[in-house]
Amino acid sequence: MSVAEIQVEADLETFDDKDPWYSVAIDLIKRKPLGAAGALIVLIMIIMALMAELIAPFDPELNSYEYMLVGPNWTFLFGTDQFGRDIFSRIVFGARTALFVGFVSAIIGSSLGLVLGVTSAYFGGRFDLIFQRIMDIFMSFPLIILALAVVSIFGTGTQNVILAITIPFIPRCARVVRSNALAVREVPYIDAARACGFSHTRIILRHMVPNVMAPYLIMFTAFVGQAILLEASLSYLGLGVQEPVAAWGLMLQGGAEEFAESAPWIPIFPGVAISLAVFGFNLFGDAIRDVLDPKLRSR
Amino acid sequence: MYNYILKRILLMIPTLFGAAFLVFFLLRLIPGDVCELRLAGTGLYVDQETIDICREKLGLHEPMIVQFFDFLLGIVTFDLGESMWTGRAITYEMGLRFELSLQVAIMATVTAILIAIPLGTISAIKQDTWIDYIVRTISIAGIAIPSFWYGILIILGILIFTQSWFGEPWMPPLDYVPIWVDPWRNLSQLIWPAIATGYRYSAVATRMTRSAMLEVLREDYIRTARAKGLLEKVIINRHALKNSLLPVVTIIGIEFAFLMGGLVVTEQVFNLNGLGKLFVESVMSADYSMTQALVMVVVIVFVFTNFIVDIMYAWLDPRIRYA
Q1: How far is it, in rounded angstroms, from Cα A228 to Cα B262?
Q2: Mean pLDDT taken over chain B
Q3: How far apart are CA B76 and CA B20, in angstroms?
Q4: Which of A204, A216, A232 is nearest to A109 (CA)?
Q5: Which residues of A lie closer than 8 Å to B, measured between beta carbons?
Q6: Most confidently modeled of A7-16, A136-145, A260-269?
Q7: In this predicted complex, what is the ipTM?
Q8: CB A169 within 8 A of CB A106
Protein backbone atom coordinates (compact mmCIF):
# COMPACT_ATOMS: atom_id res chain seq x y z
CA MET A 1 0.00 0.00 0.00
CA SER A 2 1.42 3.34 -0.92
CA VAL A 3 1.73 6.21 1.44
CA ALA A 4 -0.84 8.21 -0.49
CA GLU A 5 -3.50 5.62 0.24
CA ILE A 6 -2.59 5.54 3.89
CA GLN A 7 -3.02 9.27 3.98
CA VAL A 8 -6.44 9.13 2.36
CA GLU A 9 -7.59 6.53 4.81
CA ALA A 10 -6.28 8.51 7.73
CA ASP A 11 -8.08 11.58 6.46
CA LEU A 12 -11.33 9.72 6.17
CA GLU A 13 -10.97 8.46 9.67
CA THR A 14 -10.34 11.84 11.24
CA PHE A 15 -12.41 14.23 9.20
CA ASP A 16 -15.50 12.22 8.32
CA ASP A 17 -16.64 12.48 11.90
CA LYS A 18 -18.89 15.50 12.07
CA ASP A 19 -20.13 14.41 15.48
CA PRO A 20 -19.68 16.63 18.52
CA TRP A 21 -16.33 16.25 20.25
CA TYR A 22 -17.61 14.23 23.19
CA SER A 23 -18.96 11.45 21.01
CA VAL A 24 -15.64 11.34 19.19
CA ALA A 25 -13.99 11.06 22.60
CA ILE A 26 -16.34 8.28 23.70
CA ASP A 27 -15.69 6.49 20.43
CA LEU A 28 -11.96 6.76 21.02
CA ILE A 29 -12.29 5.39 24.55
CA LYS A 30 -14.28 2.43 23.24
CA ARG A 31 -12.00 1.59 20.34
CA LYS A 32 -8.64 2.50 21.83
CA PRO A 33 -8.94 2.46 25.62
CA LEU A 34 -5.17 2.48 26.12
CA GLY A 35 -4.71 5.31 23.62
CA ALA A 36 -7.41 7.31 25.36
CA ALA A 37 -5.71 6.76 28.71
CA GLY A 38 -2.48 7.99 27.15
CA ALA A 39 -4.22 11.03 25.72
CA LEU A 40 -5.66 11.79 29.16
CA ILE A 41 -2.22 11.64 30.79
CA VAL A 42 -0.79 13.87 28.07
CA LEU A 43 -3.65 16.33 28.55
CA ILE A 44 -3.17 16.45 32.32
CA MET A 45 0.55 17.08 31.80
CA ILE A 46 -0.12 19.91 29.37
CA ILE A 47 -2.56 21.52 31.80
CA MET A 48 -0.05 21.15 34.62
CA ALA A 49 2.66 22.72 32.52
CA LEU A 50 0.55 25.63 31.29
CA MET A 51 -1.05 26.50 34.61
CA ALA A 52 1.80 25.57 36.93
CA GLU A 53 1.53 28.88 38.83
CA LEU A 54 -2.16 28.27 39.58
CA ILE A 55 -1.86 24.60 40.49
CA ALA A 56 1.31 24.58 42.56
CA PRO A 57 0.66 25.71 46.14
CA PHE A 58 4.26 26.84 46.75
CA ASP A 59 7.18 28.40 44.95
CA PRO A 60 9.13 25.40 43.60
CA GLU A 61 12.47 27.09 44.25
CA LEU A 62 11.71 28.35 47.74
CA ASN A 63 13.94 26.83 50.43
CA SER A 64 12.50 26.53 53.88
CA TYR A 65 14.58 25.38 56.84
CA GLU A 66 11.52 24.94 58.99
CA TYR A 67 10.03 22.24 56.78
CA MET A 68 12.94 20.07 55.75
CA LEU A 69 12.17 16.43 54.93
CA VAL A 70 8.53 16.61 55.96
CA GLY A 71 6.53 13.56 54.93
CA PRO A 72 3.43 13.81 52.73
CA ASN A 73 0.54 15.59 54.49
CA TRP A 74 -2.31 17.91 53.53
CA THR A 75 -0.11 20.99 53.30
CA PHE A 76 2.72 19.28 51.43
CA LEU A 77 0.91 16.67 49.36
CA PHE A 78 4.08 14.83 48.35
CA GLY A 79 6.25 16.00 51.25
CA THR A 80 9.30 18.22 51.12
CA ASP A 81 12.92 17.60 50.14
CA GLN A 82 16.12 18.18 52.08
CA PHE A 83 15.95 21.93 51.37
CA GLY A 84 12.35 22.19 52.49
CA ARG A 85 11.03 22.64 48.96
CA ASP A 86 7.52 21.36 48.28
CA ILE A 87 7.83 18.26 46.08
CA PHE A 88 4.32 18.56 44.64
CA SER A 89 5.04 22.09 43.42
CA ARG A 90 8.35 20.98 41.98
CA ILE A 91 6.64 18.16 40.11
CA VAL A 92 4.04 20.53 38.68
CA PHE A 93 6.75 22.94 37.52
CA GLY A 94 8.85 19.97 36.42
CA ALA A 95 6.07 19.11 33.95
CA ARG A 96 6.75 22.46 32.33
CA THR A 97 10.46 21.71 31.95
CA ALA A 98 9.84 18.17 30.73
CA LEU A 99 7.21 19.18 28.18
CA PHE A 100 9.18 22.19 27.02
CA VAL A 101 12.30 20.13 26.39
CA GLY A 102 10.25 17.23 25.02
CA PHE A 103 8.16 19.22 22.57
CA VAL A 104 10.83 21.63 21.39
CA SER A 105 13.42 18.95 20.70
CA ALA A 106 10.86 16.60 19.14
CA ILE A 107 9.49 19.33 16.86
CA ILE A 108 12.91 20.58 15.74
CA GLY A 109 14.39 17.09 15.47
CA SER A 110 11.55 15.49 13.54
CA SER A 111 10.94 18.53 11.32
CA LEU A 112 14.57 18.80 10.28
CA GLY A 113 14.55 15.04 9.77
CA LEU A 114 11.41 15.38 7.66
CA VAL A 115 12.86 18.00 5.34
CA LEU A 116 16.23 16.26 5.07
CA GLY A 117 14.67 12.84 4.51
CA VAL A 118 12.30 14.08 1.80
CA THR A 119 15.05 16.08 0.10
CA SER A 120 17.32 13.05 0.10
CA ALA A 121 14.61 10.85 -1.41
CA TYR A 122 13.59 13.51 -3.95
CA PHE A 123 17.03 14.12 -5.42
CA GLY A 124 18.09 10.48 -5.15
CA GLY A 125 21.24 9.27 -6.87
CA ARG A 126 24.61 10.30 -5.56
CA PHE A 127 23.17 12.99 -3.30
CA ASP A 128 20.99 10.41 -1.58
CA LEU A 129 23.89 7.97 -1.25
CA ILE A 130 26.24 10.48 0.35
CA PHE A 131 23.49 11.82 2.56
CA GLN A 132 22.61 8.35 3.78
CA ARG A 133 26.24 7.63 4.62
CA ILE A 134 26.33 10.82 6.70
CA MET A 135 23.17 9.71 8.49
CA ASP A 136 24.86 6.33 9.08
CA ILE A 137 27.65 8.12 10.87
CA PHE A 138 25.24 9.93 13.17
CA MET A 139 23.28 6.74 13.75
CA SER A 140 26.42 4.93 14.83
CA PHE A 141 26.28 6.88 18.10
CA PRO A 142 23.89 5.48 20.68
CA LEU A 143 21.34 8.17 21.56
CA ILE A 144 22.57 9.08 25.03
CA ILE A 145 26.24 8.89 24.04
CA LEU A 146 25.78 11.48 21.29
CA ALA A 147 23.70 13.59 23.67
CA LEU A 148 26.46 13.42 26.30
CA ALA A 149 29.09 14.31 23.70
CA VAL A 150 27.05 17.38 22.73
CA VAL A 151 26.69 18.36 26.38
CA SER A 152 30.43 18.04 26.86
CA ILE A 153 30.93 20.56 24.07
CA PHE A 154 28.23 23.10 24.76
CA GLY A 155 27.82 22.63 28.49
CA THR A 156 24.74 21.99 30.59
CA GLY A 157 21.53 23.97 30.97
CA THR A 158 18.08 23.77 29.41
CA GLN A 159 18.95 25.11 25.94
CA ASN A 160 21.96 22.85 25.54
CA VAL A 161 19.95 19.86 26.70
CA ILE A 162 17.44 20.58 23.95
CA LEU A 163 20.28 20.78 21.45
CA ALA A 164 21.80 17.55 22.77
CA ILE A 165 18.49 15.71 22.44
CA THR A 166 17.57 17.20 19.07
CA ILE A 167 20.74 16.25 17.19
CA PRO A 168 20.43 12.47 17.62
CA PHE A 169 16.75 12.64 16.62
CA ILE A 170 17.37 14.18 13.19
CA PRO A 171 18.96 11.18 11.42
CA ARG A 172 16.47 8.75 12.97
CA CYS A 173 13.51 10.68 11.62
CA ALA A 174 15.22 11.36 8.29
CA ARG A 175 15.78 7.64 7.80
CA VAL A 176 12.13 6.70 8.34
CA VAL A 177 10.74 9.64 6.36
CA ARG A 178 13.11 8.93 3.47
CA SER A 179 11.92 5.37 3.02
CA ASN A 180 8.33 6.61 2.87
CA ALA A 181 9.21 9.51 0.60
CA LEU A 182 10.85 7.14 -1.88
CA ALA A 183 7.41 5.66 -2.53
CA VAL A 184 5.82 9.10 -2.87
CA ARG A 185 8.46 10.13 -5.35
CA GLU A 186 7.28 7.47 -7.81
CA VAL A 187 3.70 8.76 -7.79
CA PRO A 188 2.75 10.44 -11.13
CA TYR A 189 1.76 13.79 -9.62
CA ILE A 190 5.38 14.43 -8.75
CA ASP A 191 6.27 13.99 -12.41
CA ALA A 192 3.33 16.24 -13.27
CA ALA A 193 4.58 18.91 -10.89
CA ARG A 194 8.01 18.76 -12.47
CA ALA A 195 6.49 18.95 -15.93
CA CYS A 196 4.70 22.11 -14.81
CA GLY A 197 8.13 23.56 -14.10
CA PHE A 198 7.73 23.94 -10.35
CA SER A 199 10.89 24.53 -8.38
CA HIS A 200 12.48 21.75 -6.36
CA THR A 201 11.70 23.59 -3.14
CA ARG A 202 8.05 23.87 -4.06
CA ILE A 203 7.73 20.22 -5.04
CA ILE A 204 9.47 19.07 -1.85
CA LEU A 205 7.53 21.30 0.52
CA ARG A 206 4.11 21.43 -1.12
CA HIS A 207 3.84 18.05 -2.83
CA MET A 208 6.01 15.58 -1.00
CA VAL A 209 6.12 16.71 2.63
CA PRO A 210 2.32 16.63 3.12
CA ASN A 211 2.29 13.03 1.91
CA VAL A 212 4.72 11.78 4.51
CA MET A 213 2.90 13.34 7.44
CA ALA A 214 1.84 9.92 8.79
CA PRO A 215 5.35 8.62 9.57
CA TYR A 216 6.29 12.15 10.66
CA LEU A 217 3.53 12.27 13.27
CA ILE A 218 4.38 8.76 14.47
CA MET A 219 8.02 9.68 14.88
CA PHE A 220 7.08 12.95 16.56
CA THR A 221 4.97 11.41 19.32
CA ALA A 222 7.57 8.71 19.90
CA PHE A 223 10.26 11.39 20.17
CA VAL A 224 8.41 13.42 22.80
CA GLY A 225 8.35 10.45 25.16
CA GLN A 226 11.98 9.62 24.42
CA ALA A 227 13.04 13.23 24.86
CA ILE A 228 11.39 13.40 28.29
CA LEU A 229 13.20 10.23 29.31
CA LEU A 230 16.49 11.47 27.91
CA GLU A 231 16.17 14.84 29.60
CA ALA A 232 15.45 13.10 32.91
CA SER A 233 18.50 10.86 32.43
CA LEU A 234 20.80 13.77 31.59
CA SER A 235 19.48 15.84 34.48
CA TYR A 236 19.87 12.88 36.79
CA LEU A 237 23.52 12.58 35.76
CA GLY A 238 23.93 16.27 36.58
CA LEU A 239 24.56 17.02 32.92
CA GLY A 240 21.15 18.33 32.02
CA VAL A 241 18.89 21.00 33.46
CA GLN A 242 20.62 22.68 36.39
CA GLU A 243 19.43 23.59 39.89
CA PRO A 244 17.34 25.37 41.03
CA VAL A 245 15.07 24.80 38.02
CA ALA A 246 12.45 22.17 38.80
CA ALA A 247 13.09 19.09 36.67
CA TRP A 248 12.09 15.53 37.46
CA GLY A 249 15.44 13.94 36.69
CA LEU A 250 17.18 16.50 38.84
CA MET A 251 14.86 15.74 41.76
CA LEU A 252 16.11 12.14 41.71
CA GLN A 253 19.70 13.25 41.95
CA GLY A 254 21.71 13.83 45.10
CA GLY A 255 19.35 14.00 48.03
CA ALA A 256 16.99 11.43 46.58
CA GLU A 257 19.52 8.65 47.04
CA GLU A 258 21.01 9.99 50.21
CA PHE A 259 17.68 10.28 51.99
CA ALA A 260 16.03 7.35 50.23
CA GLU A 261 15.59 5.32 53.38
CA SER A 262 14.45 8.02 55.79
CA ALA A 263 12.44 10.02 53.24
CA PRO A 264 11.31 7.63 50.48
CA TRP A 265 8.84 10.22 49.12
CA ILE A 266 11.73 12.20 47.66
CA PRO A 267 12.72 9.58 45.06
CA ILE A 268 9.29 8.02 44.60
CA PHE A 269 7.13 10.89 43.32
CA PRO A 270 9.42 12.33 40.63
CA GLY A 271 10.02 8.81 39.30
CA VAL A 272 6.28 8.20 39.10
CA ALA A 273 5.92 11.49 37.23
CA ILE A 274 8.59 10.57 34.64
CA SER A 275 7.21 7.07 34.16
CA LEU A 276 3.62 8.26 33.82
CA ALA A 277 4.57 10.95 31.32
CA VAL A 278 6.57 8.60 29.11
CA PHE A 279 3.90 5.92 29.54
CA GLY A 280 1.22 8.39 28.45
CA PHE A 281 3.11 9.54 25.37
CA ASN A 282 3.93 5.95 24.39
CA LEU A 283 0.30 4.81 24.66
CA PHE A 284 -0.88 7.88 22.79
CA GLY A 285 1.78 7.36 20.14
CA ASP A 286 0.86 3.69 19.73
CA ALA A 287 -2.77 4.65 19.18
CA ILE A 288 -1.78 7.28 16.59
CA ARG A 289 0.37 4.73 14.82
CA ASP A 290 -2.51 2.27 14.74
CA VAL A 291 -4.79 4.87 13.23
CA LEU A 292 -2.29 6.19 10.69
CA ASP A 293 -0.71 2.90 9.67
CA PRO A 294 -3.43 0.48 8.64
CA LYS A 295 -0.94 -2.34 8.11
CA LEU A 296 -0.46 -2.57 11.85
CA ARG A 297 -4.12 -2.11 12.66
CA SER A 298 -6.12 -4.75 14.53
CA ARG A 299 -3.04 -6.34 15.91
CA MET B 1 27.22 -14.76 1.81
CA TYR B 2 30.97 -14.06 1.87
CA ASN B 3 30.46 -11.26 -0.59
CA TYR B 4 27.85 -9.79 1.68
CA ILE B 5 30.11 -10.00 4.73
CA LEU B 6 32.94 -8.38 2.81
CA LYS B 7 30.65 -5.62 1.60
CA ARG B 8 29.41 -4.94 5.12
CA ILE B 9 32.98 -4.75 6.42
CA LEU B 10 33.94 -2.33 3.69
CA LEU B 11 30.90 -0.19 4.49
CA MET B 12 31.93 -0.05 8.12
CA ILE B 13 35.21 1.68 7.34
CA PRO B 14 33.77 4.97 6.03
CA THR B 15 31.22 4.99 8.86
CA LEU B 16 33.88 4.60 11.52
CA PHE B 17 36.13 7.09 9.77
CA GLY B 18 33.26 9.58 9.63
CA ALA B 19 32.46 9.01 13.28
CA ALA B 20 36.09 9.60 14.23
CA PHE B 21 36.09 12.77 12.14
CA LEU B 22 32.88 13.98 13.81
CA VAL B 23 34.07 13.24 17.34
CA PHE B 24 37.44 14.81 16.76
CA PHE B 25 36.25 18.04 15.20
CA LEU B 26 33.16 18.41 17.38
CA LEU B 27 35.31 18.41 20.48
CA ARG B 28 37.52 21.04 18.89
CA LEU B 29 34.52 23.28 18.44
CA ILE B 30 34.69 24.07 22.13
CA PRO B 31 35.21 27.79 22.34
CA GLY B 32 38.59 28.80 23.71
CA ASP B 33 41.69 26.82 24.38
CA VAL B 34 41.11 23.44 25.98
CA CYS B 35 44.22 23.77 28.13
CA GLU B 36 43.38 27.25 29.40
CA LEU B 37 39.84 26.14 30.12
CA ARG B 38 41.06 23.04 31.85
CA LEU B 39 43.72 24.75 33.96
CA ALA B 40 41.67 27.83 34.74
CA GLY B 41 39.18 25.47 36.37
CA THR B 42 41.68 24.81 39.14
CA GLY B 43 41.31 28.40 40.28
CA LEU B 44 45.06 28.94 40.55
CA TYR B 45 47.16 31.36 38.56
CA VAL B 46 48.48 29.58 35.48
CA ASP B 47 51.47 30.88 33.58
CA GLN B 48 52.01 30.54 29.87
CA GLU B 49 54.64 27.86 30.36
CA THR B 50 52.26 25.45 32.08
CA ILE B 51 49.73 25.96 29.32
CA ASP B 52 52.39 25.29 26.72
CA ILE B 53 53.39 22.06 28.46
CA CYS B 54 49.77 21.01 28.57
CA ARG B 55 49.30 21.84 24.89
CA GLU B 56 52.40 19.92 23.95
CA LYS B 57 51.32 16.93 25.99
CA LEU B 58 48.01 16.83 24.16
CA GLY B 59 49.62 17.47 20.82
CA LEU B 60 47.61 20.68 20.41
CA HIS B 61 50.63 22.62 19.12
CA GLU B 62 50.55 20.58 15.93
CA PRO B 63 48.32 21.39 12.97
CA MET B 64 44.75 20.11 13.20
CA ILE B 65 45.17 17.60 10.40
CA VAL B 66 48.26 16.03 12.00
CA GLN B 67 46.35 15.76 15.28
CA PHE B 68 43.49 14.06 13.52
CA PHE B 69 45.74 11.45 11.93
CA ASP B 70 47.46 10.90 15.27
CA PHE B 71 44.01 10.29 16.75
CA LEU B 72 43.13 7.82 13.98
CA LEU B 73 46.46 6.06 14.35
CA GLY B 74 45.85 5.89 18.08
CA ILE B 75 42.49 4.19 17.59
CA VAL B 76 43.97 1.60 15.25
CA THR B 77 46.94 0.87 17.50
CA PHE B 78 44.96 1.03 20.78
CA ASP B 79 47.09 3.88 22.01
CA LEU B 80 44.55 6.51 22.89
CA GLY B 81 46.80 8.89 24.76
CA GLU B 82 46.58 10.03 28.35
CA SER B 83 43.69 11.17 30.46
CA MET B 84 43.78 14.92 31.03
CA TRP B 85 42.49 14.36 34.52
CA THR B 86 44.48 11.50 36.02
CA GLY B 87 47.42 11.57 33.62
CA ARG B 88 47.29 7.82 33.22
CA ALA B 89 47.00 6.05 29.87
CA ILE B 90 43.41 5.97 28.65
CA THR B 91 43.64 2.31 27.66
CA TYR B 92 44.75 1.53 31.22
CA GLU B 93 41.78 3.41 32.72
CA MET B 94 39.40 1.65 30.37
CA GLY B 95 40.93 -1.77 31.00
CA LEU B 96 40.25 -1.36 34.73
CA ARG B 97 36.55 -0.86 34.08
CA PHE B 98 35.85 -2.84 30.96
CA GLU B 99 35.39 -6.16 32.74
CA LEU B 100 32.69 -4.82 35.04
CA SER B 101 30.68 -3.16 32.27
CA LEU B 102 30.91 -6.23 30.06
CA GLN B 103 29.72 -8.49 32.86
CA VAL B 104 26.74 -6.27 33.65
CA ALA B 105 25.90 -6.08 29.95
CA ILE B 106 25.99 -9.86 29.57
CA MET B 107 23.98 -10.43 32.75
CA ALA B 108 21.39 -7.88 31.67
CA THR B 109 21.09 -9.58 28.28
CA VAL B 110 20.61 -13.00 29.89
CA THR B 111 18.01 -11.53 32.27
CA ALA B 112 16.21 -9.94 29.34
CA ILE B 113 16.14 -13.14 27.28
CA LEU B 114 14.95 -15.21 30.24
CA ILE B 115 12.09 -12.78 30.83
CA ALA B 116 11.22 -11.81 27.26
CA ILE B 117 10.89 -15.07 25.39
CA PRO B 118 8.54 -16.92 27.77
CA LEU B 119 6.47 -13.81 28.52
CA GLY B 120 6.19 -12.77 24.88
CA THR B 121 5.22 -16.28 23.82
CA ILE B 122 2.56 -16.67 26.50
CA SER B 123 1.21 -13.24 25.71
CA ALA B 124 0.85 -14.14 22.03
CA ILE B 125 -0.75 -17.53 22.67
CA LYS B 126 -3.24 -16.01 25.11
CA GLN B 127 -3.87 -12.94 22.98
CA ASP B 128 -6.52 -10.57 24.35
CA THR B 129 -6.90 -12.38 27.66
CA TRP B 130 -6.01 -10.97 31.06
CA ILE B 131 -2.60 -12.67 30.87
CA ASP B 132 -1.89 -10.81 27.64
CA TYR B 133 -3.01 -7.51 29.14
CA ILE B 134 -0.80 -7.95 32.21
CA VAL B 135 2.25 -8.86 30.13
CA ARG B 136 1.66 -5.92 27.80
CA THR B 137 1.25 -3.50 30.68
CA ILE B 138 4.45 -4.79 32.29
CA SER B 139 6.35 -4.38 29.05
CA ILE B 140 5.01 -0.92 28.24
CA ALA B 141 5.86 0.11 31.80
CA GLY B 142 9.34 -1.30 31.33
CA ILE B 143 9.89 1.07 28.45
CA ALA B 144 8.48 4.06 30.31
CA ILE B 145 10.16 3.59 33.69
CA PRO B 146 13.63 5.12 33.63
CA SER B 147 16.16 2.47 34.57
CA PHE B 148 17.85 4.78 37.06
CA TRP B 149 14.63 5.25 38.99
CA TYR B 150 14.09 1.52 38.90
CA GLY B 151 17.60 1.19 40.32
CA ILE B 152 16.85 3.63 43.14
CA LEU B 153 13.69 1.66 43.95
CA ILE B 154 15.65 -1.60 44.01
CA ILE B 155 18.17 -0.13 46.46
CA LEU B 156 15.35 1.28 48.57
CA GLY B 157 13.55 -2.07 48.46
CA ILE B 158 16.65 -3.98 49.55
CA LEU B 159 17.22 -1.56 52.43
CA ILE B 160 13.66 -1.73 53.71
CA PHE B 161 13.37 -5.46 53.19
CA THR B 162 16.61 -6.35 54.98
CA GLN B 163 15.78 -3.85 57.75
CA SER B 164 12.47 -5.47 58.52
CA TRP B 165 13.58 -9.08 58.06
CA PHE B 166 17.07 -9.17 59.46
CA GLY B 167 16.93 -6.17 61.75
CA GLU B 168 19.79 -4.36 60.04
CA PRO B 169 19.98 -2.80 56.58
CA TRP B 170 22.16 -4.54 54.02
CA MET B 171 23.64 -2.89 50.96
CA PRO B 172 25.18 -4.56 47.92
CA PRO B 173 28.99 -4.39 48.20
CA LEU B 174 30.44 -1.26 46.62
CA ASP B 175 33.83 -2.50 45.49
CA TYR B 176 34.16 -4.72 42.48
CA VAL B 177 35.59 -8.22 42.83
CA PRO B 178 36.09 -10.32 39.68
CA ILE B 179 33.73 -13.26 39.44
CA TRP B 180 36.50 -15.87 39.57
CA VAL B 181 37.88 -14.42 42.79
CA ASP B 182 34.67 -14.31 44.79
CA PRO B 183 31.63 -15.28 42.74
CA TRP B 184 29.14 -14.72 45.56
CA ARG B 185 30.34 -11.23 46.37
CA ASN B 186 30.58 -10.37 42.68
CA LEU B 187 27.06 -11.52 41.94
CA SER B 188 25.54 -9.89 45.01
CA GLN B 189 26.93 -6.60 43.71
CA LEU B 190 26.14 -6.89 40.02
CA ILE B 191 22.85 -8.75 39.97
CA TRP B 192 20.89 -5.59 40.87
CA PRO B 193 22.11 -3.34 38.06
CA ALA B 194 21.68 -6.30 35.71
CA ILE B 195 18.03 -6.60 36.77
CA ALA B 196 17.46 -2.84 36.51
CA THR B 197 18.78 -2.61 32.94
CA GLY B 198 17.58 -6.08 32.00
CA TYR B 199 13.97 -5.19 32.77
CA ARG B 200 13.88 -2.27 30.36
CA TYR B 201 15.73 -4.33 27.81
CA SER B 202 13.32 -7.25 28.23
CA ALA B 203 10.34 -4.94 27.73
CA VAL B 204 11.44 -4.18 24.18
CA ALA B 205 12.20 -7.82 23.46
CA THR B 206 8.90 -9.03 24.95
CA ARG B 207 6.93 -6.77 22.65
CA MET B 208 8.93 -8.00 19.70
CA THR B 209 8.51 -11.67 20.64
CA ARG B 210 4.79 -11.19 21.05
CA SER B 211 4.20 -9.52 17.70
CA ALA B 212 6.51 -11.92 15.83
CA MET B 213 4.79 -14.88 17.45
CA LEU B 214 1.35 -13.53 16.56
CA GLU B 215 2.42 -13.18 12.96
CA VAL B 216 3.84 -16.70 12.76
CA LEU B 217 0.79 -18.24 14.44
CA ARG B 218 -1.32 -17.02 11.53
CA GLU B 219 0.87 -18.80 8.97
CA ASP B 220 -0.48 -21.66 6.92
CA TYR B 221 2.07 -24.15 8.16
CA ILE B 222 0.83 -23.69 11.72
CA ARG B 223 -2.66 -24.58 10.55
CA THR B 224 -1.18 -27.59 8.76
CA ALA B 225 0.62 -28.64 11.93
CA ARG B 226 -2.62 -28.35 13.88
CA ALA B 227 -4.49 -30.32 11.19
CA LYS B 228 -1.91 -33.07 11.50
CA GLY B 229 -2.97 -33.31 15.11
CA LEU B 230 0.33 -32.29 16.64
CA LEU B 231 0.37 -31.41 20.30
CA GLU B 232 0.01 -27.68 20.88
CA LYS B 233 3.27 -27.76 22.84
CA VAL B 234 5.11 -29.16 19.83
CA ILE B 235 3.51 -26.64 17.50
CA ILE B 236 4.56 -23.74 19.71
CA ASN B 237 8.06 -24.93 20.53
CA ARG B 238 9.15 -26.52 17.28
CA HIS B 239 7.20 -24.63 14.64
CA ALA B 240 6.14 -21.25 15.91
CA LEU B 241 8.84 -20.20 18.36
CA LYS B 242 11.76 -21.12 16.11
CA ASN B 243 10.39 -19.05 13.28
CA SER B 244 9.45 -16.08 15.38
CA LEU B 245 12.86 -15.74 17.01
CA LEU B 246 14.49 -14.05 14.03
CA PRO B 247 13.32 -10.49 14.72
CA VAL B 248 13.85 -11.14 18.43
CA VAL B 249 17.50 -11.99 17.85
CA THR B 250 17.87 -8.78 15.91
CA ILE B 251 16.28 -6.64 18.60
CA ILE B 252 18.38 -8.32 21.29
CA GLY B 253 21.50 -7.55 19.29
CA ILE B 254 20.55 -3.94 18.71
CA GLU B 255 19.59 -3.47 22.34
CA PHE B 256 22.91 -5.00 23.39
CA ALA B 257 24.64 -2.22 21.52
CA PHE B 258 22.35 0.34 23.15
CA LEU B 259 23.10 -1.16 26.53
CA MET B 260 26.29 0.87 26.57
CA GLY B 261 24.11 3.94 26.84
CA GLY B 262 21.86 2.38 29.45
CA LEU B 263 24.87 1.51 31.56
CA VAL B 264 25.97 5.14 31.65
CA VAL B 265 23.02 5.93 33.90
CA THR B 266 22.72 2.64 35.77
CA GLU B 267 26.35 2.60 36.83
CA GLN B 268 25.79 6.01 38.36
CA VAL B 269 22.84 4.78 40.43
CA PHE B 270 24.60 1.71 41.78
CA ASN B 271 27.89 3.53 42.11
CA LEU B 272 29.67 1.01 39.90
CA ASN B 273 33.07 1.94 38.63
CA GLY B 274 32.48 0.97 35.01
CA LEU B 275 32.94 2.54 31.60
CA GLY B 276 29.66 4.46 31.86
CA LYS B 277 30.71 6.15 35.07
CA LEU B 278 34.09 6.93 33.57
CA PHE B 279 32.29 8.56 30.66
CA VAL B 280 30.12 10.75 32.87
CA GLU B 281 33.13 11.72 34.97
CA SER B 282 35.14 12.61 31.87
CA VAL B 283 32.34 14.84 30.59
CA MET B 284 31.99 16.49 34.01
CA SER B 285 35.69 17.14 34.47
CA ALA B 286 36.10 18.32 30.85
CA ASP B 287 38.57 15.52 30.17
CA TYR B 288 38.29 15.83 26.39
CA SER B 289 40.89 13.23 25.47
CA MET B 290 39.06 10.68 27.60
CA THR B 291 35.63 11.70 26.26
CA GLN B 292 36.66 11.39 22.63
CA ALA B 293 38.34 8.02 23.23
CA LEU B 294 35.29 6.65 25.08
CA VAL B 295 32.86 7.89 22.44
CA MET B 296 34.97 6.18 19.79
CA VAL B 297 35.08 2.91 21.74
CA VAL B 298 31.30 2.95 22.16
CA VAL B 299 30.80 3.70 18.47
CA ILE B 300 33.11 0.85 17.46
CA VAL B 301 31.27 -1.57 19.74
CA PHE B 302 27.95 -0.31 18.41
CA VAL B 303 28.91 -0.60 14.74
CA PHE B 304 30.41 -4.07 15.22
CA THR B 305 27.36 -5.31 17.11
CA ASN B 306 25.13 -4.11 14.31
CA PHE B 307 27.39 -5.85 11.84
CA ILE B 308 27.17 -9.14 13.74
CA VAL B 309 23.38 -8.77 13.99
CA ASP B 310 23.14 -8.31 10.23
CA ILE B 311 25.30 -11.35 9.56
CA MET B 312 23.26 -13.43 12.00
CA TYR B 313 20.12 -12.26 10.32
CA ALA B 314 21.34 -13.48 6.95
CA TRP B 315 22.60 -16.71 8.48
CA LEU B 316 19.43 -17.50 10.43
CA ASP B 317 17.01 -16.83 7.61
CA PRO B 318 18.07 -18.59 4.40
CA ARG B 319 15.48 -16.57 2.50
CA ILE B 320 17.55 -13.48 3.07
CA ARG B 321 20.37 -13.51 0.61
CA TYR B 322 21.83 -10.10 0.30
CA ALA B 323 23.04 -9.93 -3.27
Answers
A1: 15
A2: 82
A3: 11
A4: A216
A5: 133-134, 136-138, 140-145, 148-153, 225, 229, 232-233, 236-239, 249, 252, 256-257, 260-261, 264, 267-268, 270-271, 274-276, 278-279, 282-283, 299
A6: A136-145
A7: 0.82
A8: yes
